[in-house]
Amino acid sequence: MPRLETTLAEIRAHGGRVTPARRAVLAAILDAGEHHFTAADVLAAVDQAEPQPDRATVYRTLELLTEIGLLKPLPLNGEAIVYHRTDHRHGHVVCRVCGAITEVPEQALIDFASTLQQETHFTIDADCVAVSGTCEPCAAAMTHA
Ligand SMILES: [Zn+2]
Ligand SMILES: [Zn+2]
Q1: Which residues line ion ligand 2, judged by CB < 5 Å?
Q2: Which CATH architecture has domain 2-73?
Q3: Which of 2, 17, 52, 121 has the highest count of CB atoms within 10 angstroms of its CB?
């Protein structure tokens, strides 16, 4: 998997040490089909890894990957930081009730971002947009409550 080696090289270039535990954290992130996860998800994913990375290693590795730009924390209001993988470009709609994250195709975002940019003169982080709303099951549950 070249992506793992490329990322390890980026970490080294950034001045970070590549330890077996950090390699295990990174492999777990890259192997997961999920584009979104919290530190707790990563901790669970490396539960069987040898050597097993400790909490501090997981947190520090997530910080490093954010510094080199592979991960971005989503601007959400939940208590746990949700990381998003920047190697898969898309936006997000997030349910305010259950926290479900649904990916939005990049093209929809580019249109949205360019409208926002014209209106506000902000440079929009188009791959990091998170729009809050209510997902279909939650909306249905509320109507039937
Ligand atoms: Zn995402
Ligand atoms: Zn929901």
Answers
A1: 95, 97-98, 100, 135, 138
A2: Orthogonal Bundle (1.10)
A3: 52
Cα(100) to ligand 2 centroid in Å equals 6
Write down the domain spans for the chain.
2-73, 89-144
Determine if the pTM surpasses 0.85. Answer: no
CATH number of 89-144: 3.30.1490.190
Indicate the residue type of 127.
Answer: D
Q: Which ligand is nearest to the CA of 94?
A: 2
Strand 91-95 and strand 101-104: the pairing is antiparallel
Give per-residue pLDDT as tens, 47-104: 988 888 999 999 999 999 999 988 999 877 777 899 998 887 888 999 999 988 999 8
